[in-house]
Design brief:
alpha+beta, Glutamine Phosphoribosylpyrophosphate, subunit 1, domain 1, five-stranded antiparallel β-sheet, 4 helices
């Protein structure tokens, strides 16, 4: 979710196989660097593999270019990686959230073969996008400050999780601002 010179990304913490919960502290949002995060929903093994390959390519970029990758460049990198595997795709849906060098928020999502979609307000992915879209559309407003953005994303995420039997067990939310990174864990439904 985008705010005024800030962006936030969050996910629930449940890892399960169909209706069986395996663990309740599974990370689904990964830090690429201080101004860039990658959220991966879908098959956990594919998400882990994709994340490791993305980290490798980002590290190679840092060595070659001697700078961190911009969020737009990173979005195209992930899109290209997914499209390379279009005949045997990774079963995951990435969401990329970051701050550009000038402080503008960048939000990008894509399907399992890398078809990109950018947004100026919010991006959702996972098992319950319909309920998340409804909450985000009703609660998001332009130019929110970091604390208001966190509160809005937390309420949307917890409300969406409450309507989804395949999600839950709390949430983790990262808020990226030009000068700091805020990470908070929220308790949620425990069933």
């Amino acid at each position: 979710m985008a705010g005024k010179n800030c962006v936030a990304i969050g996910s629930d913490l449940r890892f399960g196989v169909q209706l069986q919960t395996i663990t309740t502290d599974c990370p689904k949002v990964f830090k690429v660097h201080d101004k860039l995060f990658l959220g991966l929903s879908g098959l956990a093994t594919d998400a882990q593999t994709l994340y490791e390959k993305v980290v490798f390519r980002h590290n190679m970029y840092k060595l070659r270019e001697e700078r961190l990758m911009r969020p737009t460049t990173f979005g195209h990198l992930v899109s290209n990686m997914l499209y390379e595997r279009r005949f045997g795709p990774y079963f995951c849906g990435p969401v990329i959230a970051g701050l550009e060098e000038d402080g503008t928020p960048y939000l990008c999502g894509m399907d399992s073969i890398g078809a990109m979609e950018t947004a100026k307000d919010f991006m959702v992915q996972g098992t319950a996008p319909e309920s998340l879209y409804g909450m985000c559309e009703s609660m998001w407003r332009p130019d929110m400050e970091a604390e208001a953005l966190f509160e809005t994303l937390a309420q949307c995420l917890l409300s969406g999780v409450d309507r989804d039997a395949l999600a839950g067990w709390g949430s983790v939310i990262h808020v990226i601002t030009p000068d700091k990174l805020i990470t908070r864990t929220i308790k949620g439904r425990m069933d």
